[in-house]
Design goal:
The protein is 0% helix and 51% strand. By secondary structure, the chain is mainly beta. It has a single domain (15-88), classed as Nucleic acid-binding proteins (OB fold (Dihydrolipoamide Acetyltransferase, E2P)), CATH 2.40.50.140. The chain has a five-stranded mixed barrel with strand order 1-2-3-5-4. The protein is flat. The N and C termini lie far apart (61 Å).
Length: 91
């Protein structure tokens, strides 16, 4: 009977801190995450960046804000992140 029991495994949600680069869509923001990696050959730091689309229910974030996004279920074709908090507002 234990073989048929379904185990529920909770995984830790990934989260990133990044900069809002676009807010032109309704309830959606584009967040750019930047990280520095050392080049294996030349031993110099290279900045890598990736863009994520995140759900912003209240249209709270604006361009230039620093925000935290967390992983969630797929909300659309490109959107599987949601806005957790606005860390710092743009001036």
């Amino acid at each position: 009977m234990e073989e048929n029991a379904v185990q529920t495994v909770k995984t830790a949600k990934r989260s990133f801190v990044g900069l809002v680069t676009s807010e032109k869509m309704d309830k959606t923001i584009v967040v750019t995450i930047s990280s520095k990696k050392m080049d294996r050959l030349y031993k110099k730091y290279v900045t890598r960046s990736k863009k994520y689309m995140a759900h912003d229910e209240n249209n709270d974030a604006h361009v230039g804000d620093t925000v935290r996004i967390v992983e969630c279920r797929p909300l659309s074709k490109n959107k599987c992140w949601r806005l957790a908090e606005v860390i710092e507002r743009a001036k």
